[in-house]
Design brief:
- The protein has about 475 residues and is an alpha+beta fold.
- The protein contains eleven helices and 22 strands.
- The strands form six sheets. Strands 1-2-6-3-7-20 form a six-stranded mixed β-sheet, with helices on both faces. It has a five-stranded antiparallel β-sheet with strand order 11-15-16-10-17.
- β4 and β5 form a beta hairpin.
- α2 packs antiparallel against α4, α4 crosses α11 and α7 packs antiparallel against α8.
- It is globular, with a radius of gyration of 23 Å.
Length: about 475
């Protein structure tokens, strides 16, 4: 892991520019995090396509934008667009209001209340992506108030479905026919800049399997490592208790409990782009049941996917930009006759999904169904706009060692054109995005305002001067 970068320069021009906005931005973030904006199938309507609470968050963003002086469009309930200025060139900034689900028993802090403790801001969305979004919005507001944002049309897009595949931005560009920007960025990843993103797809792998337990399913979202799984056993309870003791000794990182006939395994959640950072309770459950009921196929599934990189079935594809392929099992369903494994797949952008899935089918002997996804990209490193982002980061932090990244995470940049991801996570830091007790350091929240003000100012200058 790289060492942490130093803080932004406290005496920089942009630090002084954004300083008067820091307290208000923090207060707004507190109100924003308090909205549990997780997709909710039960409350979705035509007007609220992602459910009641996501709509509340988008409405909050709309009210905030109006108060800050932006023109506001609710985009048919899919997003909130905040617009400022006019010009032949357009700068887009993409943030999102939706957050991933919460497993409350894994949190030490209240997930939907902003808690400041020892310099860290805890709460779901503080790092992904409410904190960076608010930091960037107030950086833009500081530039507007100082008359530095003229001559270019600026669209600040706040979407409602980034975590489930970015249908909101697809609606914006295709259903609403909004033009693509001259340049755009999303404050939803890492510094110094993301020049490439893997292709991201989902698939279902089906295996014939017979286990002497009740039907079960586990997993909240495909892009989260399954943190907990429970099943009701029909037989061999005493054997299960002995097996639990042995596996607990061999695998101390998992927690196994048996109460009556109910077996529960707890692991560790992690972002689906790096499943090896977590411990998949669903996969360990299949392994356990496979040993208990002598079902090889259940054990095979664990062997195929436990590493998260596909080495066991020759699926670890890589190229000069992307160093690995990832396979995150985000949901498992057992119906008494078969196991369905739902996989979040991320692979080099130069490859075709058909080839990757064919390899899965061939070497795992599972029935594979493509559930769709989006192709990744590689951005031109010589672009003046991309260089401006890197320079803004370097000048404010003094970090000239960190290099542009190609990642497995997916951002709005892939759904747009002429766009990349820029911040807000600094090298060497882990904010537990998608995990329990997600947080964002208060100092990073404020430092991001400085970097984004510098970056946006530089981009606007380039766009104004471009012919």
């Amino acid at each position: 892991m790289k060492k942490e970068t130093q803080r932004t320069k406290i005496d920089s021009t942009y630090a002084k520019l954004v300083a008067p906005y820091a307290d208000e931005a923090l207060k707004v973030l507190s109100e924003y995090v308090a909205i549990p904006s997780v997709y909710d199938e039960q409350t979705r309507t035509t007007e609220k396509p992602f459910g009641e609470n996501v709509d509340r968050a988008l409405a909050f963003a709309a009210e905030l934008g109006a108060r800050l002086g932006f023109e506001v469009d609710r985009c048919d309930g899919y997003a909130t667009e905040l617009t400022y200025g006019k010009g032949d060139k357009t700068l887009d900034i993409y943030a999102h209001a939706d957050v991933v689900p919460v497993r409350r028993d894994g949190w030490r802090h209240e997930p939907f209340a902003l808690t400041l403790e020892e310099g860290n801001l805890y709460g779901r969305g503080t790092a992904d992506d409410k904190g960076p979004g608010i930091s960037c919005l107030y950086a833009l507001k500081a530039l507007i108030d100082s008359k530095k944002a003229e001559g270019v049309k600026i669209r600040f897009f706040i979407g409602g479905d980034e975590e489930r595949g970015s249908s909101c931005l697809d609606h914006y560009f295709h259903a609403m026919k909004r033009p693509y920007p001259t340049f755009g960025f999303s404050p939803d990843s890492d510094y110094p800049v993301i020049y490439g993103e893997k292709s991201i797809y989902a698939y279902k792998a089906t295996y014939e399997c017979h286990l002497d337990c009740e039907n079960f399913q586990c997993g909240d979202a495909l892009n989260i490592v399954i943190p907990k799984c429970s099943v009701t056993l029909r037989s061999r309870i005493d054997e299960a208790k002995l097996l639990a003791l042995r596996l607990s000794e061999r695998c101390p990182k998992i927690r196994i409990s048996i109460v009556g006939d109910k077996l529960t395994i707890e692991g560790k959640p992690a972002h689906g782009s790096m499943p090896w950072e977590g411990i998949n309770a669903g996969l360990y459950m299949l392994r356990f049941l496979g040993y208990l009921y002598d079902e090889k196929r259940a054990r095979d599934i664990f062997d195929h996917y436990a590493s998260g990189k596909g080495e066991s079935f020759r699926g670890d594809f890589r190229d000069k930009d992307f160093d690995c392929t990832s396979y995150n099992v985000g949901r498992i369903v057992y119906d008494g006759e078969k196991v369905e494994v739902y996989v979040n797949l991320r692979f080099p952008a130069t490859m075709e999904v058909e080839d990757v899935l064919h390899n899965c089918a061939l070497n795992t002997e599972a029935e594979i169904e493509d559930l769709g996804g989006s192709r990744g990209f590689v951005f031109d490193l010589s672009s003046p706009c991309l260089k401006a982002l890197v320079e803004a980061y370097q000048e404010e932090t003094g970090d000239s060692e960190s290099k542009p990244l190609a990642i497995g995470g997916g951002t709005y940049a892939r759904e747009s054109r002429n766009a990349v991801a820029f911040g807000a996570q600094f090298p060497g830091r882990d904010y537990r995005m998608h995990g329990d007790d997600e947080f964002f350091p208060l100092a990073d929240f404020r430092d991001n305002m400085v970097i984004y003000a510098h970056a946006i100012d530089s981009l606007l200058r380039i766009l104004r001067e471009e012919k």
